[in-house]
Amino acid sequence: MSNLSWTTFAAPSKFEWLASALMPWLWALCLIMSAAGLYQGFIVAPTDFQQGQSYRIIFIHVPAAWMSMVLYMAMAVWAAVGWAFKVRLASMLARAIAPTGAMFTFIALWTGAFWGKPTWGAWWVWDARLTSELILLFLYLGYMALTEAIDDPRRSDAAGALIALVGAINVPIIYFSVRWWNTLHQGASISMTAAPKMASTMLTAMLLMTVAFWAYAFAVVFTRTRAIVLERERETQWVQALVNGRNGRNGLKE
Q1: In CA terms, which of 25, 63, 91, 217 is 20 to 30 Å from 151?
Q2: Long-range CB contacts (< 8 A, 24+ apart) of 6-12?
Q3: Does residue 143 carry a pLDDT above 60?
């Protein structure tokens, strides 16, 4: 571990070691940030003068929507890297990201419905952003269904990369939909080029929840990737040595 580079952890065995070391810290960060963010958002943050208490769903809805888009792009990038450069770990990471991205997309849609009912008077409208976010969920589900339907890992990874790359065009459509079309969905409250359109306590709560969701995503994706790595590499010497070492510590015999 003395000579580290950006390719050091591309080896499945090195990644397994890194993931094992980071996961306890990631789960701890997730729990701490979640508790702080929920307290800040649901207790400390003031009531909105237009939407009342119902606006507080944004502290879950907005970070989940961000994560749904970011994770899809990460999945598409890793799938493309694995396909183009034959990097096994990249394809494994793409597979591991998909269920977590789908979960955040579902949460964004579900919490959006709870927010939309008191705000728009309807659980669902065929708004440009809502519709494109729903398409994102179908893309995640399609990627997972396709990769699981093909037994050969190489063919499965290639097919998954193709659908992930084609679907990536939907992410900028989601992001820019409120600018390109006249939609019911409000514009961005946080921008890199303008001052935030919300109180500092609200902004703090949203950022805390965003960090919590990031930590959760890393922890779950690392856990799932480790499982995929150990499954695919089960015939290699390093996995056999790892299993034997754990069995030895647990007092088991082969």
Answers
A1: 217
A2: 9/89, 10/87, 10/89, 10/90, 11/89, 12/88, 12/89, 12/92, 12/229, 12/232, 12/233
A3: yes
